[in-house]
Amino acid sequence: MTSPGPAQPTQPPQTSVLLPTGDDAVRVTPTRLADGRELLYFDDTQAYVSGAQTRRLDDPRPLPDRFAPVVGEDGVARPVTGPELRRDPLTGEWIAMAAHRMNRTFLPPADANPLAPAKPGAAYQDGEIPAEDYDVVVFENRFPSLMAVPGESDATTLRDGEEVWPVRPAAGRCEVICFSADANASLATVTPRRMRTVIEAWAHRTEALNALPGIEQVFAFENRGKEIGVTLHHPHGQIYAFPYLTPRAQAMLTQAREHRERTGRLLGADVLAAELAHGERIVLESEHWVAYVPFAAKWPVEVHLAPRRDVPDLPALTDAERADLAVTYLRLLGVLDRFFETDDGEPIPLPYISGWQQAPAREGRDDWRLHLQVFSVLRAPNKLKYLAGVESGQSAWISDTTPERIATRLQELTR
Length: 415
Known about the structure:
There is one protein chain. Helix content is about 20%, strand content about 20%. By secondary structure, it is α+β, with helices and mostly antiparallel strands. It has 2 domains: about 15-65 and about 80-245, HIT-like (HIT family, subunit A); about 250-415, HIT-like (HIT family, subunit A). The strands form 4 sheets. Strands 1-2-3-8-11-13-12-17-18-16-15-14 form a 12-stranded antiparallel sheet, sandwiched between helices. Strands 7-6-10-9 form a 4-stranded antiparallel sheet, with no helix packed on it. The protein has a two-stranded antiparallel sheet with strand order 4-5. A hairpin with a 5-residue loop joins strand 4 and strand 5. The longest helix has 19 residues, at about 190-210. The radius of gyration is 22 Å and the shape is globular. The N and C termini lie far apart (about 55 Å). Its cofactor is Zn(2+). It catalyses: alpha-D-galactose 1-phosphate + UDP-alpha-D-glucose = alpha-D-glucose 1-phosphate + UDP-alpha-D-galactose.
């Protein structure tokens, strides 16, 4: 099987698409960056939704084709190679080797933010978004951990002929999603209308990436806060399309299958039903969504947000569920940002990782149930949970609190 090759850096005629989202219409306009990477604008501003205006589609940067041969120190041009996957013979896990990411952007100054819109009147700047403004934008990462190289087979081979050293190209895709053109904003501060556009972008990209040959799983996530290790403070997230099932997804799928075989029921549905029946860890509810602290929460702060209906992934959500999610998600983020306070009673914006646990692209979709996981490494103001010996070395987790205490605090904030 050969991985799909991204299009070359040309500027073909672009066709925008109006997503059928009821009253909350979103126009999607694709283009290509100077090195051939795909960029898509997701617009909810009326002038762009109507088609009266369009975003800038050309990229003036003198970037070379990212798949052009690379000239080495010896003066010889060689085909570009992508990141590599190596299989750990002791655990069976695939590990991506992406050494080029050592040179990625790290905490740039405000005037060199690559996710900011282009400066008005500037002929050139090394930013990723050519338009002078945008609503939501998605583009292929310039420093990807996963990348399909045209013409490169994704077959598994043995390094140096060793049976215990399987290798294969990391032929997936990594995208960046910018939630706002405002570098000082956060996902928690956008309007429900803009949050709906973000949801449409997540769903759109999930469906598109799931359809790529060789892709097994799509993971849309956000890292927020320096404590998490964020290297760009502009409000943004990422979308990874994996050419394999991640260890967590594989473990969850195994549990779901065993539960189905034992009970004939969907595990995710039974988990939500149990939380609703007992109620002590329910954080908030809406018509279509329920937020709760999971029974065996690992992290100092952890919440799951699940739809009431059995849904495998974001593309399967109805318009009503998406509209409700836009409001409920923002409400949940607002509560989380008040979980910790300073000595003066001022809220501390929560550093967190938020990720959509979606059904795999092909395997086990009937056994999966969509939910969002939000968690933080902050265990108290100015105190982090470090993954020490047994957690880092053995994946044997020890919680510094209890799920019930986490839930009680969140419930206090929703009253």
